[in-house]
Amino acid sequence: MEATKAEMGEVREENERLKTLLSHIVRDYKSLQMHFLDAVKVKERAPDDHKAPAAEPDDDEADEPEDLVSLSLGTRPKPNAGAPRKGHDRTSSSSSSGAETGNDGQLSLGLSFARGGGTNPPSSDDDDKASLALPPVLNLSSDSSGDEPGHVQQAGACPPSKACRSSSAGNGADDEVLQQQQQANKKARVSVRVKCDTPTMNDGCQWRKYGQKISKGNPCPRAYYRCTVAPNCPVRKQVQRCVDDMSILITTYEGTHSHPLPPAATAMASTTSAAAAMLVSGSTTSFAHHGGGGGGHHLRLTSAGAGMLGPTTISTASSCPTVTLDLTAPHSLSLMHPSSSSTTLYGGAAAGYEPSSRALPAAWSSGYLAYGSAAPQPYYAAKSTPSAFGHFGPMSMAARPVVAEQMYGHTTPYLQRPSGGQVVAPAAVTDTIAKAITSDPSFQSVLAAAITSYMGRSGGAAAQK
DNA sequence: CGTGTTTGACCTGCGC
DNA sequence: GCGCAGGTCAAACACG
Question: N or C: which end of chain A has fewer CB within 10 A?
Fold first, then answer.
């Protein structure tokens, strides 16, 4: 009895602490919002001033002259790390036949700049997270199209690359609607660049190779894998060495797992889902168009943030949008949309830590770490049903670490290990990440937005169930 | 013998 | 319509 009381007391205490932290986060978030908005405004005024170097090698432009919306967070003009070059650029962009609904129904994190006035997130979301009202800049809507069944989220619902391709361009009844449909049909991809000696990166999932191909511009063959954890899992990945640096492995994930994942795989999977969702969301959103030459849309922003984050470029194009997480360079966690589209985001996630060949990339590892260690109810994800995972997955990368760190203000020494037995990351990495997150407003904005979205979505999902 | 990989053929989309 | 390139299939093969 007494023990129970004591526990209750602890819980209450914890609850209070969480409330305080939450309000703190909200406050921070709002101020970050303002920073972000400022950055956006500045960028819009001087669109030319800062090219997002990482994401657009010349070839890139040549290759993908299409809609390109880029978003630069931070000031890290490292040209290569995030920027796929010719060879692998194509890799990730590979117009691929793919056109599946992908992560459509999922939580989405995107951008919606300069939209005439329709930047309001769906009201339903608003309700859920009233205190975290979204800025006009970040559109975290669970997407807009409203209905958003939440069952559609599974890429598998629609066989990859074939069934869903009916982007019937026929009627041209409503361009916008049509575009949205087409965008929705795009298969969002998440590409990961990691230094890795082994033929493929161990991400905790089981994969079966089903093909290999020499792609143009890269002497290294590209290998095609599909997830074999579940028979019907639609997730596929492509693995290819970087043409510039053979030690860099570029892994491109596509689709969302339709099954529970082993712990070792959740971080990766949710990260990729998150990125994919972000892409999908971003691509379904209208952006301000700069320099319409050749139909290219290009938008960039640069935050006044610390140098930890680099250029973020989000671009959309007719084929598959791709987010690339660049973990090859220290201090870099990048999201990018090469190919048809490119988003590059450098962060401090991997600071000082170079993922060893068989280890998970630091970013995931740390996210995983923080997540696993800090959750008040341990293993949120582990408890998730597959579908829940499908819904919530997209949040994980962004939100977990930040939530963990900000809410608890510390990094637990507890190290979660993937079932594979690999050590995920040193605690120092987590610290670094925490610092990166807390020190960079832009990154925080994104993360906070993701959290907001997550909260809204999870509420909605819960309501659905 | 079961499972996974290799590899050439085939399919599809896209640009010219 | 044609050719090219990316993506997938499936038979053959290798391995434990």
Answer: N
Collapsing DSSP to helix, strand or coil, A116 comes out as coil
Distance CA A90, CA A316 (A): 15
- pLDDT tens digits, A208-257: 888 888 888 888 888 888 888 887 788 888 888 887 787 888 888 887 78
Residue A196 — very low, low, confident or very high, per pLDDT cuts 50/70/90?
Answer: confident
Which residue minimizes Cα–C1' distance to B12?
A97
**Secondary structure letter of residue A190 according to DSSP:** E
Nucleotide in closest CA–C1' contact with A98: C7
Query: Which amino acid is residue A65, in one-letter code?
Result: P
Contacts of A190 (CB under 8 A, 6+ apart): A252, A253, A254, A271, A272, A273, A275, A276, A279, A322, A323, A324, A325
Rounded CA-CA distance A390/A328 in Å is 28
- B/e letters for A192-230, b = 16+ CB within 10 Å, e = fewer, are bbbbbeeeebbbbbebeeeeeeebeebebebbbbbbebb
Please tell me whether any atom of strand C lies within 7 Å of the Cβ of A352. no
